[in-house]
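Target protein
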Amino acid sequence: MSKTLFEKIIAREVPAAIIYEDDLVVAFRDIKPQAPTHVLIVPRKPIPRIAEATPEDQRVLGHLLLKAAEVANKLGLTQSGFRLVFNNGPDAGEAVPHLHCHILGGRHMSWPPG
């Protein structure tokens, strides 16, 4: 099976503006930002989407959420607010089949989002 774009970014086979990484997750700027600040945070483990996560993925998923909040704080988004988005499947806007969380901020977000 071929690597996803995000696996290639993690392996440094494709360049990206990486702003955070540790042994479980990598965060980098989105190449098609939908807000003034738009960062993706992805697990190093290639989980295709949240609906395919297993109980064994609990640690990495919890870590990903905590690190998303840390990254948002480091980017200065905590006071004004930010949005975390997970897309699951093509109808939800999933473009890369590797679980990822969008960190969006720097502008007012409307509701409903879709």
Notes: DSSP finds two helices and five strands in the chain. The chain has a mean pLDDT of 96. The radius of gyration is 14 Å.
